[in-house]
Design brief:
Blueprint: E1 3-7, H1 13-26, H2 37-45, E2 52-58, E3 61-73, E4 78-88, H3 97-111, E5 117-118, H4 126-134, H5 150-156
Parallel strand pairs: 4-5
Antiparallel strand pairs: 1-2, 2-3, 3-4
């Protein structure tokens, strides 16, 4: 087996989009995927990219992806990496690809003088939680995630939500 992790290119957009849908199915969140391939093209490769992606390959075949971006810790006074998604396709699981991705991002963080890696995991995903514990991750149980989206985001921004008549 020849495993490789590389930066994604625009030629990988359909693969990334497929993996996002597969991840959403696995997480039982497929109904929440509203992004399009064009959204990923803009976010990853547009004039002002705000996210980055890695592609995992095994013997030249796409095996998974990771999507990440820089965040900032005011307590550390340094940037970090927020890992939005890591997905390994079912046929390639158990071959060490997840560990390779986290090692790759940890090496990048250290080389760039960043303070940490962070991500979320669904509380029912025991295989992932066990894997993360094995690489030294520590759950942050004292924090509760907050989110403003959709109509609430528009209201907070002082804009009226769109109605079907609008």
């Amino acid at each position: 087996m020849m495993a490789l992790i590389r930066d994604a290119t625009p030629a990988d957009l359909s693969t990334i989009f497929r993996f996002v849908r597969e991840l959403a199915e696995y997480e039982k969140l497929a109904d929440q995927v509203v992004a399009t391939e064009a959204d990923f093209a803009k976010a990853l490769f547009g004039p002002n990219p705000r996210a980055l992606a890695l592609i995992m390959e095994v013997d030249g075949d796409p095996a998974g992806f990771a999507l990440w971006f820089y965040n900032f810790s005011t307590f550390l006074g340094r940037h970090g990496i927020w890992i939005e998604d890591v997905y390994v396709a079912p046929d390639f699981r158990g071959q060490g690809l997840g560990g390779m991705v986290f090692r790759h991002l940890a090496q990048r963080a250290v080389a760039e003088g960043l303070g940490r890696l962070e991500w979320w995991v669904l509380n029912w995903n025991k295989p992932a939680i066990d894997f993360y514990a094995g690489i030294g991750a520590v759950p942050m149980d004292e924090w509760t995630v907050q989110r403003v989206t959709g109509e609430a985001l528009l209201r907070l921004a002082g804009q009226a939500p769109q109605t079907k008549e609008s």
